[in-house]
Amino acid sequence: MNSIPEIKKNMESKMDQSIAAFKNNLTKIRTGRANPGLLDTVHVDYYGSMLPISQVANVALLDARTISVQPWEKGMGAKIEKAIRDSDLGLNPASMGDLIRVPMPPMSEERRKEMTKLVRHEGEAAKIAVRNLRRDANEHVKKLVKDKEASEDDQKRSEADIQKLTDKHIAEIDKMVAGKEQEIMAV
């Protein structure tokens, strides 16, 4: 780390990565609505290799509550169906000829509350990651000041900038948590 702008740039890009990872984790949390991304974690045996379903079939939405899976090869239907059934997503796929329909079971009130807790927990983990990046950036700046490569005024200014970036990222996480909670609680 040579300069304060580099430290800030590095911190911001890492914060953006934390938010991207959080967004990715949110797509895996089930709501009452169907989402093709839900099956991203399910892997199927394809001639001895474990591949994500999206690499052996076309995954799309039939309607708001049903995902359709269209295998690219004839013999894969049963394997894909079994992989979905054996996953921990609690889904029950049904074959209709070559097409596999995956209906989303409606969520109970209790399950919805569990899911919102999970969303909040993920959000908190993302905020902790952002705060840790803020701390690291501030420590790098303090080291520059200690090594006489930056002034104390620079340090004060950069700490304010770093805090602004942190606040911006935390607000974005809060907004995403609120949006996901709304999505889960919508019946």
TrEMBL record:
Indicate the principal place this protein occupies in or around the cell. cytoplasm
What are the residue boundaries of the Ribosome recycling factor domain, all occurrences included? 22-185
Annotated Gene Ontology cellular component terms: cytosol
Q: Which GO terms describe its biological process?
A: cytoplasmic translational termination
Q: Which Pfam families match?
A: RRF
Record CDD domains: RRF
Q: Subcellular localization, per the record?
A: Cytoplasm
InterPro entries reported for this sequence? Ribosome_recyc_fac, Ribosome_recyc_fac_dom, RRF_sf
Named from the GO MF annotations, one term is:
ribosomal large subunit binding
- Ranges for the region named Disordered are 144-163
Decide whether keyword Nuclease is in the record. no
Q: Which UniProt keywords apply?
A: Cytoplasm, Protein biosynthesis
Source organism superkingdom: Bacteria
The entry assigns this protein to a family as follows: Belongs to the RRF family.
* Database matches in NCBIfam families: frr (TIGR00496)
The protein's role, per its UniProt record: Responsible for the release of ribosomes from messenger RNA at the termination of protein biosynthesis. May increase the efficiency of translation by recycling ribosomes from one round of translation to another.
Q: Which protein are we looking at? A: Ribosome-recycling factor
Which organism encodes this protein? Ramlibacter tataouinensis
What is the phylogenetic placement of the source species in the record?
Bacteria, Pseudomonadati, Pseudomonadota, Betaproteobacteria, Burkholderiales
Gene for this protein? Answer: frr
